[in-house]
Request: fold
Amino acid sequence: MTQPVGIAPEGGPSVFCGAVDVGGSKIASALFSESGEMKARTRIPVDAAGGDDAARQVVEAVRSLESAAGDAGGRLAAVGLCVPGIVYSGSGKVWAPNIPGWDRYPLGGKLDKALGERRPRGEGDGTEPVIILESDRSAYVAGEAWRGAAAGAADAVFLAVGTGIGAGILAGGRIVHGAEDIAGAVGWFGLDPAFKPAYAEMGCFEAEASGSSIGRKARDMLRAGRSSLMNELASGVVENVTAEVVAAAVRKGDAAALEVAADAVRYLAMGVANIVSILNPEVVVLGGGLFQSADVFLEPVRREFRLWAQPLAAEKVRIEVSALGEDAGLYGCGRLAWQSL
Amino acid sequence: MTQPVGIAPEGGPSVFCGAVDVGGSKIASALFSESGEMKARTRIPVDAAGGDDAARQVVEAVRSLESAAGDAGGRLAAVGLCVPGIVYSGSGKVWAPNIPGWDRYPLGGKLDKALGERRPRGEGDGTEPVIILESDRSAYVAGEAWRGAAAGAADAVFLAVGTGIGAGILAGGRIVHGAEDIAGAVGWFGLDPAFKPAYAEMGCFEAEASGSSIGRKARDMLRAGRSSLMNELASGVVENVTAEVVAAAVRKGDAAALEVAADAVRYLAMGVANIVSILNPEVVVLGGGLFQSADVFLEPVRREFRLWAQPLAAEKVRIEVSALGEDAGLYGCGRLAWQSL
Reply:
């Protein structure tokens, strides 16, 4: 260790916090100093078997962070851990649809058993790191509010638009969880009174504006015989037309793609506006797969949401694309770990 | 004093908190015990001159509460004070459109000057009550979550539907204020992609579903020649047709009124659903003038919001009409005062 990044109170060992971001396909982990400097990052694939095997990988990740903290002359005081789904705060159970067997899976209990009971601060003997479980979308907003596009904000929302649509909410400096730990289900925003069957499956906003839905709308258009550059861009295979293909065709001025994008932008603008009106955040951070085509979707959403949102809230809010990208979860877990101390 | 309702720690004097609810036309005040028992309530008209005259009435209300607490053998430890509009937490300024001159009016500063500097707990000498300023809608949700329809809930929303539409939000036991103290502006929810000019003035949800808008839609229908019982109920004067008249005609099975109500219910259901999906509250409390016709509007909203909301959040949430009615603000101010100690 050449650069101590932890804090060393009164000459004692440095203190670090750890972050473990469990995604649908990988487990990333890192150590963080109190100021948000990242160290000792690792990344491994999630065991395809899921269940207890994936939980064991999480335990190993925490043990590795303990070792890494020790190697750096310090100790691991707390670990933030996020999962791609929902964390039920009362029970420590998790629901993560992309990990087999993680359907109300008792991850918190498994970690306690493997790592020793993790106690809230002040109740343990000080040698065991506290483990903070959080949903990925809540971690994203915490990360962006620490070192990303919402740095310093106490009121911020991370809106993830990809396969689905969901939001992480920070209000007055605290994560909003809701009564059942499922706050932020904005994919279910009703934005169009003309109800369609798809709304019952995934929610109106998600059915109209997720990356998957944008791809589907484009494919439906092509199948209905509409001529478009999107056909060539997908090498004539309609099944290959995704939101990325729509964005590529928009960049070339394709009329059909512009129509699909404008339709999605209208709903995205309404969704962002509704978030702004109800929560009055300082920043809305846009993330997820769709905003990797930020050149196509960001500016129109920034313009159009003002048509809908409470005017003063609209004037004050910033609409930004994620600054941390794939690292938002790690930073968020690090932040939540530090905040727990 | 025959029934001490305050608490008397270690044999000292009883402690009370006060509540002052400034409305558009009246100032109500009361003392509260820690358990929420109300004492010494008063109610006076707001001075029509507004401005400093109305502020002086507030000062007098606080002084009267101090006297009442003393008469009861105790002291006033804190006062919650709500105004019909917005409280800017940083500056103590208020915006209350129904009180002349209260447009970024420095109410907090005026009270400090008149009553002596009120300091946050622990910083004063313990003899001066702390004053907590809050918006009315935030006070309503705090009150309902104390002794009303959301009693005991840490996650609750008060949705006020009357002349306008707005919400007070409690998340994880704390009021959500937003970055500019204007959270809860749900009257601006975008619920219909077919933008209309009225949306720019007051927001889509408010333009489609406030009590005023329901009355306006009914009047437009009658002026367009639609025959309806509403004409008789308003003694043939179309200008007298309000949301109450619509409700009265619905009770008699009038087709035109049923159409107006069904249209409003669709938007009310979407608005409630959007609140449920983003915040996952335990209870949504419906208040304001419109829900005085709860027999007409409550059950349809309870049924229809499920069509739109995230299914698990919809299953768990309760949708209730305000239990405290006009006293929600007083109870909320009392609660916020106690919570400040």
Summary: The longest helix of chain B spans residues 255-279. The first strand of chain B starts at residue 14 and ends at 22.
